[in-house]
Design a protein that fits this description.
Two copies of one chain form a homodimer. By secondary structure, chain A is α/β, with parallel strands linked by helices. Chain A is 40% helix and 14% strand. In chain A, α1 packs across α3. Chain A is elongated, with a radius of gyration of 26 Å.
């Protein structure tokens, strides 16, 4: 980087004093310099590839117009569209995104937040937080922060989420309408707000249909992954051969349920129906095409960017929570339960 | 951001002079201060959430330890793993990634590069370049740059790519081995290096098997998308009812070929075999599971980060090109041609 041009280089090439070049380059002082000189300075700046030094501005204003975006893993297909939405939302206002992955590790997240703060980040958008997390710095909320696709139990941080309760409610209602009663839930780790909300929504939705949920009907996965879903669903099916439907906490977990069924010689949806959550790209293509809940990934990204920008302008405002609507996407993985499963207390023969 | 703590705040809380606090905070000058004072200063810094000011360092050194990563669209499933690899590769060396999407628009790219340069970016990793692109600034290559999954015709910029020629060669060889002779290619826009390399590799590979490629056997898509693939394959199939196999330039385009076949009442692989490229996540799940070429996305990301870091250290070094190996992943979308297609010159009846 030893060749990055300075204002002095620009002034020299334009044949003016540095202070003149500086005034010519700043829109707010440009009218103190003649048009011809402005043109000469701008030409010189362009020729040298001179970029106005934002590090100097950053030092002066303690802002960088950069926002830190921290997610568990970009390879989880729920995140690319959210991050794309965030980037577009930030760019509308001249901001840029610095991106990092934590693999869900709180210690990595702590280090990343420190590293980003050291780079004068103006705020954070986090998709990583656990239910009991505090804002990144809690000495008077120094850094504006918005959660996306996550929330805290106490609602102390601004957040943009999808309507998890409505989504799970729609899945349960679909299955009950098809005739299912013995419906199980493969849930996410208890520490993650998204999973916890969906778990509570499952219990609530079942209760609305007069169905109680026993402990044996729920398995908590270790992660939002296909493999964790496969293992959790396997254990669930082995302990509860009578279940006829599984509400999975997300699409990757649902695809894992497919594998667990296949391993046991069971067919979806003929033996067991499965629903997902998120409507991630490509979940229409597995066999059977997955019935799932569509969440507005991209809009969640845009909204979280706009919410953060509003907080950067007014850091003292009360935390705001935005819940975006979801919709059921009925494909082929949910159907009526098998005939011999009809008597509620009878165990299905296999 | 008016509450960001300064070194003065830290010194005040610790009850020492600012210069002492500064020396206590810098690892290289820490031993000039008593252990007790160091502890007091560090405690105060932690309590206040003080982060060493990298804007000041950035101004002094004209580096930021931030790299700009510019891609067409994160929602194309080839990119998340590459970007994740880049981020991990940068983090090994204490660097971070600033991410932006161009939607393939050169004007957007130009603006993003300027905006990132203004933020003292140390270098660029670009997955956007067209074959005829010059490095981001060409006034003596001011900003170290590495291309990933892209290359320039003249090899003037460092690049990390997958072995496109070997991959297409493997696909053609598989199809020829299965008995196909009338093999078509759905190619990418001519301006994009990845697509152009694969197109040339297709012509070469066919020639190696004694097969010439007529213009009618190739369609150039408008983009690397499912919809562009569907339209290009449709036009190809309408003009060439005798083809028995399609080598698609990537997986999204291949999935588009599936749609074009289905629209014409043709079955894959019974009527027409299809191969993809990239082995993007989930292409094993469509029906039929896609036979494709696996490229090492994550490793391409890591390698491009390391290559860029080496260039930042030594900007004068000659451009380096790294080509990573690929492998054929045989699934279900390629099979022997239909029996009635055997006579090479006879048109298949439908």
């Amino acid at each position: 980087m030893d060749k990055v041009p300075t204002i002095k280089d620009v002034a020299e090439l334009a044949g003016v004093h540095s202070s003149t070049a500086s005034r010519a380059l700043r829109p707010d002082t440009r009218d103190t310099v003649s048009d011809r000189t402005v043109k000469r300075v701008l030409d010189a700046a362009r020729k040298l590839g001179f970029a106005p030094n934002s590090a100097a501005r950053s030092l002066r204003t303690k802002t960088s117009s950069v926002v830190g975006v921290i997610i568990p893993d970009l390879r989880n297909p729920v995140f690319p569209s959210i991050v794309r939405g965030i980037e577009d939302g930030l760019r509308e206002a001249g901001y840029m995104a610095m991106l990092a992955n934590t693999d869900g590790d709180p210690e990595t997240e702590r280090k990343l937040i420190a590293a980003m703060r050291a780079r004068q980040i103006d705020g954070f958008i986090l998709a990583t937080s656990r239910r009991d997390d505090l804002p990144p710095t809690h000495d008077g909320e120094l850094v504006p922060t918005v959660l996306v696709n996550r929330d805290t139990d106490d609602g102390s941080v601004s957040a943009v989420t999808a309507d998890n309760a409505a989504g799970i409610g729609a899945a349960v209602q679909l299955l009950v309408g098809l005739g299912h009663r013995r419906i199980a839930h493969v849930a996410a780790p208890r520490e993650l707000s998204t999973g916890w909300e969906r778990y509570r929504a499952f219990v609530d939705a079942m209760a609305r249909h007069g169905l109680t949920v026993s402990e044996a009907q729920v398995r908590f996965c270790e992660a939002f992954t296909e493999d964790a879903g496969r293992r959790a669903a396997g254990s669930l099916l082995d302990d509860n051969p009578a279940i006829t439907a599984i509400v999975a906490v997300d699409d990757l977990v649902a695809i894992g349920c497919y594998s667990a069924l296949a391993e046991r010689g069971l067919s979806c949806p003929d033996d067991v129906s499965v629903t997902g959550f998120n409507d991630t790209p490509f979940v229409g293509t597995p066999h059977p095409a997955l019935t799932t809940i569509h969440i507005p990934h991209y809009d969640m990204g845009i909204e979280s960017a706009r919410l953060l920008l509003a907080r950067i302008k007014d850091p003292g405002a009360a935390p705001k929570r935005i819940v975006l609507p979801v919709r059921l996407v009925a494909r082929d993985s949910a159907a009526a339960p098998p005939m011999d499963a009809a008597p509620p207390m009878e165990r299905r023969t296999r």
